[in-house]
Amino acid sequence: MKYGIMGGTFSPIHIGHLILAEEVRQRYSLDKVFFVPSGTPPHKIGRVYASAAERCEMVELAVRENANFEVLDIEICRSGYSYTVDTVRALKHRHPDDEFFFVTGADALTGLDTWHNFEELAKEVVFIGAGRHGVTHSGLVQKTDFLAQKYGFKIELVETPLIAVSSSEIRRRVAAGESIRYLVPREVEDYIAAKALYLSRHPLYEKMFELTKNRMSSVRFLHSLEVAAEARRLAHIFGEDHEKAELAGLIHDYCKEISDDDARKYIEKYGIEWHSCFAEKPGLAHGEIAAGMLLESGLVDDAAVLDAVRWHTYGSGQMSQLAKIVYVADITEPTRRPFAGQHEVRAALRYSLDAAILAWQPFNEALIRGEFHPNNAKMFESIVSGKNVQT
Ligand code: ATP
Ligand code: MG
User: Fold this and answer.
1) What does the CA dihedral 52, 58, 59, 64 come to, rounded to 10 degrees?
2) Three-state DSSP class for residue 53
3) Residue 19 to residues 169, 190, 305, Cα–Cα distance (Å)
4) Which position among 31, 232, 317, 319 has the lowest Cβ density within 10 Å, counted as fewest Cβ atoms?
5) Which atom from ligand 1 is nearest to the alpha carbon of 160?
C-alpha cells in the first residue's frame, strides 16, 4: 500500500489542503492520505488560535465523507509537543511493509531543515512538494536541490492548482467578521461559528501567553490553552465577554507550580485568609495567589478576570458568571483524561453553568481527597439558594 501523510496545524483546515491532498493521491495512486493535525508545535504555539482537539475535529468533519482520507490523532494524543519524525516512525511501525510519502506545500518545504531531527526524517520518507502562492518555483527547486545534496533528502515536486488560501487568512476574516463560505467545507464553517473560534482576543492575551508559558511545564500549559478555549466557548454560549473568559482561562494556573514554601510566603504576603486545608497543601491557594501576584505586578488589572482566576479552585459564595465559566472550563476542557463525573457535568452544562457546578460536587476530586476549603460549601449554598454567601 502507498500512503500519503499531510501534516499541518490545520487551524482551520481549508480547501487548499484538501485539493492538494486529492491531487497528490491521484497522481501517485496513493491508497490513502492521512491527515495528521499537529499537537502544539513549538514554532506555532501562540499563533494557532484553536486547541488541538478543535483542530482535529475540524479535519475530521472535512474528510469524513471521503473514504480515501483519514484523520490520525497520534500527534495530538501525545502529551507535550510532537515532532513529525516521531509520527512518521510510529506510522511505519504500524505499517512495516508499506510506502509513505510526506506531502507539503512549498512554504513548509523551505523551512524543512529547521525541523526537529530533520536528518532522521529525511531518511524515513519521500517528500512530495507542491507549489504555493507566494513561493517561486525556481526558489523551491534551488532549496530542494540543496536539501537533497546535503541530507540525501528525497523529494518530488508536483504541479497542482495554486489555491491562494491560507489558514491565517481565514482566521483574519473570521476575526474581522468577513465571510469564509467556500474557503472551508460547510461543516467546518459551522463548527467555527459554534465553538466561537478565531474571534478577537483580549489585548493582554499575547503578553500573558508568553509569560504563562514560561512559568509552567508544557503539559500544564497545553491544559491552560484548552481551558482558555473552553472558557471562550462557554462565554459565547452564555453571553459573557469572550475576551475576558479566554484570558482568565489562559492564566488560571499562573501560580500552580510554585513551591509549598513560596505558597506559604504568598498566602501571608497577599493577606489570603488562612484555612486549615492550607497546612498540608498551601498550593491549594494558587488561584488566590495568582490573582494577588498578577495585580501586584501590574500585569492584569481587570477585576473580573482576576476574580475568575482567584476562585477557580474552590469557588466562592459570590461567583460571577465569568468565574463560574472558568471554574467549569477547568473541568470540562476536552483533553482531560476521562474522569468520574465527566458525563454528568457535561450533560448538566447543556442546561446551565450552575447545574454543571452542582453536578460536579459529588465527584470533586479535591473534596474526595479531603482538601476541603469552606468556600466550596459556600459556592454550593449560594447556587442552591440563589443568593450570595459571604466569603
Ligand atoms: P497558516 O496560515 O496558519 O500557516 P496554512 O494555510 O499554511 O496555515 P498549515 O496547516 O500550516 O496551513 O499547512 C499544512 C500543510 O498544507 C503545509 O505543508 C502547507 O504548505 C500546505 N498548504 C496549506 N495551504 C495550502 C495551499 N493553499 N496550497 C498548497 N498547500 C497548502
Ligand atoms: Mg502554513
Assistant:
1) 140
2) helix
3) 17, 20, 43
4) 31
5) 29
pTM, two decimal places: 0.75
- Which residue from 84, 167, 184, 197 has its CB within 8 A of the most atoms of ligand 1, so it is best to mutate? 167
Q: Could you tell me the distance, in angstroms and rounded to a whole number, from the CA of residue 132 to the centre of ligand 1? A: 8
Does residue 16's CB lie within 6 angstroms of at least one atom of ligand 1? yes
Ligand index nearest the alpha carbon of residue 198: 1
Which residues fall within 8 angstroms of residue 61, CB to CB, at 6 or more apart?
A: 185, 187, 188, 191
d(CA 229, CA 250): 8
Any ligand 1 atom below 6 A from CB of 63 = no
- Cα-based torsion angle of the residue sequence 250, 252, 254, 260 in order, rounded to the nearest 10 degrees: -160
Q: What pLDDT digit, counting tens, does each position of 25-61 carry?
A: 999 999 999 999 987 655 555 556 787 888 999 999 9
* Ligand 1: residue whose CA is nearest its atom 30: 105
The per-residue pLDDT for range 137-149, each reduced to its tens digit, is: 888 888 888 888 8
Q: How many angstroms separate the most distant Cα atoms in the chain? A: 73
* Cβ count within 10 A of residue 179: 9
* 95 within 8 A of 30, measured Cβ to Cβ: no
Q: Which three cell numbers stand for residue 112?
A: 524543512
Q: Which residues pair with 101 in a beta bridge?
A: 4, 126
Cα(169) to centroid of ligand 1, in Å?
Answer: 11
Residue with cell 505558597: 263
For residues 315 and 379, is the Cβ–Cβ distance under 8 A?
Answer: yes
Helix or strand run (H / E) with residue 2: strand 2-8
Q: Which atom of ligand 1 is nearest to the CA of 163?
A: 27
> Residue by residue, what is the 3-state secondary structure of 331-348?
HHCCCCCCCCCHHHHHHH
The span from the CA of 29 to the CA of 23, in Å, is 10
CB 225, CB 250: distance < 8 Å: yes
Which ligand is closest in space to the CA of residue 165? 1
Q: ∠ CA 184-177-353 to the nearest 5 degrees?
A: 90
Regarding the beta carbon of 55 and ligand 1, being less than 6 Å apart is answered no
Verify whether ligand 1 is closer than 6 Å to residue 163 (CB atom). yes
Instruction: Tell me the pLDDT band of 109, cut-offs 50, 70 and 90.
Output: confident
Residue whose CA is at the smallest distance from ligand 1 atom 13: 8
